Amino acid sequence: MRKNLHRNLIFLTLLLLCLHIVKGQNAPDHQKLIEQLNNSNHLFYLDCIKKYDSCLNRYPDDIGILIEKCRFIENAQYDDMEDINPNQDELDSCLSLLNTRFPDHPDVLLYQAEFLWQDELLKVVRRAETSIENHPGDWSDIDRAELYKRMATYYYYADDFDSALLYSEKAIYNQDEYKSSLEYARLLIKLNRKDEALEALKSDGDTIEEAWHLSQKAALLLELEAYQEAYELYTIVAQKDSSYINNNKLAKTLDGAGEYDLARTYLVADTAKGWGREKTYSNLLRHDLKHESGEKCIESYTKFRDLGYTMDPLGIYRLKVFFAYPQGDWKLRDISGILTLLLTIIFLILLPSVWILPVYFVGHYWKLKTRTKDYESIWGLKMFWFVSVGYLIASLVTVIASPEILYAFTSDAFNQDEMTSEARALSVLLFSISFLLFGLVSLYKVKPGVLLSKNWTIRNSIIMGIVILFAYKIVAGIYLQIGFRNLGFVAEDLTSIPGYLLALRQDIHAFITTYGKGVSVAVICLLVPFNEEIVFRGVILDSCQRYINFKVANVIQAALFAAMHFSLVLFPVFFLFGILSGWMRKTSGGLLAGIVFHVLNNLVAILLLLTIR
């Protein structure tokens, strides 16, 4: 009995082992399945190519079939992750056949314009424009419009907005519907022609009702501060597909429309995301500081600060919360931010020693001072230090008013590009006024005659200021042309153009929009030049001449003046401006000629900006 049981167990074990072996042999190999799948994919691709070839054999002159074949080869097995087309050789062959048989056909040129870029694209466009000129009847209005739209897009992303506008206008001439397109509106916004952009977005020509398209249009309306229109579109988008709703943008729209409580609801909902929490909490905090009670500010700041020290490294937001809600509790980490701010102020007070002490020691030990009987110093290095600290403190005041300016460098929660036009304008105004106060204090006990010219009459000072400005503009223009042609300058490098000596054009446009033309001219064309001539060609140049000769002192003040504008590409332009102003200060014996030169330069810049708005 026991022997039979033992045999049965052995038999059962062998049977299970055999079944396991058979089962393993019958199980499909995943590698083979993947290989079969890839083979079937390729076989299907080859089958499609045969169908295209069959059609081309029957209709060899059908351009549409050949273009569709090229499109199929281009996209059928393209690997987006690796950016590789395994059928690139076949695609090149197909494109070569198109070029050989139909080199100047509109459909072929338009197809090539779709995927080519840079020099290759420009070659195709030149061929297309020649074809339009020689055979205008072959090109329909729609074909021409498509070509010009492609070129407008190319120049838009190359930051050549003037060329993009030229081709956009050509496209509109051939297809009026393009005037209401999102692409044209974006271009107008870049050119700061906001009224025209708003008109384009509000026009009846845009009939696309897709949720994605409407959300993009709403975002542009929000950028143009057309809050009510943007809110209406966001409402439609929410009904069509809520996945296209951006809670932050919708909250800004509601905020602009005066619906503050509803805006906060969307901002709070955004904080529930598992990603991008720094950004969402910073948006909520800034909203609460602007519209909500102190308790809500404390609550949102606590959650915001819980994300780390870099959220508020200088304690600026904590100070804002304090002024909104003084009785709120402080935490130890909050005090650390305020201490960092105080240390920053001390650092800014000591920092000017870096460029002032070398002047003192070099003048004493290298004997660079060339003493002349007719020279009498008005300012000393202490005043040089004072105005340098004034510049740094004015910058800090601007940061305190708009922390995003600095915090954008420490955290992804902030972005300078998202600053409102009002915030940008306030930054320009606060910096200009703060720095001006230090410049005016430097005139304490200084005789008014220093503002005039000892060696030139008022009339001659004005004439020389105009003549030197004209010569300066010519030299600066030549430098920029050389830069564009030979040094690789691009439009984004020249954010100060056409003003040369103004802040970023975006900030100046915001200033004009917020405070009006009159205030803008008064501040930018009168107060700013007046103050900068006093500080650089007055205090700095004069104090340096106590210890070193004029040539070296003039180079120092011009270099500091150029560095203040934070543009490496335009540094030579600013430096030349400082050198010329310093020379006028030395030659005329006063500041009047330099002030005229500076005022007229900024006035020309403002007039140009107002003209191209």
Could you explain how this protein is built, in words?
This protein is mostly helical and 613 residues long. The chain has a domain at 351-389 and 448-611. It has helices at residues 2-26, 30-58, 63-75, 88-101, 106-115, 118-134, 141-157, 161-174, 182-190, 194-202, 211-223, 227-240, 247-256, 260-270, 277-291, 294-305, 316-324, 332-350, 353-365, 381-401, 404-407, 421-441, 458-487, 505-544, 550-563, 571-588, 592-611.
Number of helices: 27
Helix and strand content put the structural class at: mainly alpha
Biggest pleated sheet: none
Shape: globular
- Work out the radius of gyration: 34 Å
Helix content: over 70%
Order of helices and strands: HHHHHHHHHHHHHHHHHHHHHHHHHHH
Overall mean pLDDT: 84
- The assembly state of the depicted protein chains is single chain
Layout: helices, strands, pairs:
Blueprint: H1 2-26, H2 30-58, H3 63-75, H4 88-101, H5 106-115, H6 118-134, H7 141-157, H8 161-174, H9 182-190, H10 194-202, H11 211-223, H12 227-240, H13 247-256, H14 260-270, H15 277-291, H16 294-305, H17 316-324, H18 332-350, H19 353-365, H20 381-401, H21 404-407, H22 421-441, H23 458-487, H24 505-544, H25 550-563, H26 571-588, H27 592-611
Helix pairs in contact: 2-3, 3-4, 5-6, 5-7, 6-7, 7-8, 8-9, 9-10, 11-12, 12-13, 13-14, 14-15, 15-16, 16-17, 18-20, 20-22, 20-24, 22-24, 23-26, 23-27, 24-25, 24-26, 24-27, 25-26, 26-27
